Amino acid sequence: MEKDNQVGIGKFALQLVLDFSDETDAANKNHSNSNYDFCIGKTGAMDLKKVVSAIETASKRNQIIKEDLYRETHALYHAILEAIQGVTRGQSQLGEIMRTVGLRFAVVRGKPYKNKAEGEWLAVALYGTIGAPIKGLEHETVGLGINHI
Amino acid sequence: MEKDNQVGIGKFALQLVLDFSDETDAANKNHSNSNYDFCIGKTGAMDLKKVVSAIETASKRNQIIKEDLYRETHALYHAILEAIQGVTRGQSQLGEIMRTVGLRFAVVRGKPYKNKAEGEWLAVALYGTIGAPIKGLEHETVGLGINHI
Amino acid sequence: MEKDNQVGIGKFALQLVLDFSDETDAANKNHSNSNYDFCIGKTGAMDLKKVVSAIETASKRNQIIKEDLYRETHALYHAILEAIQGVTRGQSQLGEIMRTVGLRFAVVRGKPYKNKAEGEWLAVALYGTIGAPIKGLEHETVGLGINHI
Amino acid sequence: MEKDNQVGIGKFALQLVLDFSDETDAANKNHSNSNYDFCIGKTGAMDLKKVVSAIETASKRNQIIKEDLYRETHALYHAILEAIQGVTRGQSQLGEIMRTVGLRFAVVRGKPYKNKAEGEWLAVALYGTIGAPIKGLEHETVGLGINHI
Amino acid sequence: MEKDNQVGIGKFALQLVLDFSDETDAANKNHSNSNYDFCIGKTGAMDLKKVVSAIETASKRNQIIKEDLYRETHALYHAILEAIQGVTRGQSQLGEIMRTVGLRFAVVRGKPYKNKAEGEWLAVALYGTIGAPIKGLEHETVGLGINHI
Amino acid sequence: MEKDNQVGIGKFALQLVLDFSDETDAANKNHSNSNYDFCIGKTGAMDLKKVVSAIETASKRNQIIKEDLYRETHALYHAILEAIQGVTRGQSQLGEIMRTVGLRFAVVRGKPYKNKAEGEWLAVALYGTIGAPIKGLEHETVGLGINHI
């Protein structure tokens, strides 16, 4: 029998990164009996392309998306860019304007709508810190991107 | 004796809006023994200025910020704009591009850094839905803005 | 027997709006033996939401997308916004910054990739004029948005 | 005998709005023996289109640009938009995000380059306040746009 | 006797890049009896500055603009940036956000308005693909920038 | 006896960079009897992070902000980014889109409001040239950022 997805795919992704930031195993334990597929990971960079790349690689390696289908890469890519907008708040730049991020990410795939014709969707959640490239000169940041797949 | 703020001010604000979206009372119960001051509320609009206004009004009414001090209004305003960037992902517009939001917000004020000289900071968290002005044609969205005060 | 789509979906959409701007019937004649589904139309406004709305309405009325499926509305909406970026070049605003557009639009749906697993995609092409709200004080503008559906 | 323009057209425009903000007549006295043509004015609004419109109207009335030539309107319009970017710092919006401006503007036309083949250029300078729509809750803001004409 | 420019300068530039993408010679044949001056070329990069540079170099080498006049470089530069907005749709970035382009460009110069006092204008059209730096993971993209010169 | 700050902190910062651009010593002489603390400097780059870094370093070395307090670095950083918006007018990029700047900067700290509870504020003013990386192919540019501290 299929379980119902009682929690939105975005909220589920956010809770994953918030739990994950405390303790990695907890994330896997608490959330593994969901109907959603997901993967979690970490990335730190002064370089947005490393953030994009880390999330894409993890998503393909964990088979959240099919590596050889452009439509799935396209869906994931735009969800990542939207999540980055939340993290960078206005300018999708890091090192170019002297800032760096340390992020946890979650990529979630599943059917969040009751109407099954709505099909599968992707959520990318990011949570961590952003700031000067000096330890401690930073504050928290979050982002969420959602796309149909 | 002062309790320690074990949770970051941004994460605390995010958890408030995520809990709040399930059940309002829960938010108040679970989080009221924190060292942070906070208020929570709802706003729905095709109009960003209503979102800004709802958050500012709630923050002043709940004495999270001092109404007559421009520096506090200025700090809150920029935190709100940053949170809106996450919600709108690229264009801080709603009705102008035919979309609407239904949001819960949390405004949190406190001292998130161990070094007390860092003083007070503000976090504004937003969580809800964004989409076409037709019920159901929408997905989740989130935003977080943080500023010194 | 299925014909091959020899022309990219974006180029096909652009040719539709460029032909259309000369003579409406020509557009239908020259392009109707394609494998793509499409609709064409006109919109003029100082208001982006009227542009979005005109394209969405035409796409639903001509059954390019299914009205009651959010995933299809979502795909079209983001393709429209991307096309608008080309038209407005930097700020997705019209009347707010004292300018107006007169546009022809084409919405095209089909399978542009040889690998059939790539499925269906949407292209939105816009071509027309942008300028001051005074006849003649305007120049041409174009935009193209593409999304998987 | 033609005087040399010893001061850049942008600096000249900025000095006009900075002087003007102290005392209007001073602006005219101190700067009237320059080789540049200019006009100065005031505008206050929650609406960018009123700012654009006030500057365009003053420029045409004072014959800084020719009303019926699109190329001159086009040059001025883009210089105004660039100056507005400085004033609004990231989002060319006022009332939409609950803020208002009170601005002095200067529009300057002339030949700022020694090589006469460089021809005429336009500078638009803005200086004033931006903030909440409540007196006193505001700070200073400036913008400068420059374009060939 | 001077031929009339029956086609807008933007449409002419777009048709050049669309034809060019099929067969280079065709572009030169079909369009060479126009009143517009133009050049066409190709550029592929993960780097916007290579795109800007390729178009500027081709325009100077083909004497579409005068190399030593800043006003002409300035006009071309802003037309290129506007065309890039259409290609990148929201963020003028390529490699920084892990994407690459393969583009054909056309730069057209001439008098598109009946009123000869409107003088010369420039159009920059771009057409090609944008996507992941992996062959096939890409879709079409277009951009058009127009400026007075 | 405390002197009154008759001039706004933003105007004061602008006058510093405008005077400075003529003659460095003049800047120090004319402005040193103000109630504001300030530092001035120069920076030239195709790289925004060098601009950010030059201003931060000068501000810390001249004790305009406290190096080890994140809240002061945070306030300065956002004021710098706002000033850069004015300089770059729409895209906070330099070398990425083939342009370079030569800038004078002023960082001013003080109490610009009569109500002493408004406390200290920071202004960052930038003035100089922006253009192609070729001498002479450039025009003036300005930016101003203001933040509470």
UniProtKB/TrEMBL annotation, chains A, B, C, D, E, F:
Cross-referenced NCBIfam families: PRK03065.1
A single GO molecular-function term is: RNA binding
From which organism does this entry originate? Allobacillus salarius
Q: Subunit comment for this entry?
A: Homohexamer.
Q: Which UniProt keywords apply?
A: Activator, Histidine metabolism, RNA-binding, Transcription, Transcription regulation
The UniProt entry's GO biological process terms, in alphabetical order, are:
L-histidine metabolic process
Of which family is this protein a member?
Answer: Belongs to the HutP family.
Is Membrane given among the entry's keywords?
no
Keyword Transcription in the entry? The reply is: yes
| Protein's name in the database | Hut operon positive regulatory protein
Biological role stated in the UniProt entry: Antiterminator that binds to cis-acting regulatory sequences on the mRNA in the presence of histidine, thereby suppressing transcription termination and activating the hut operon for histidine utilization.
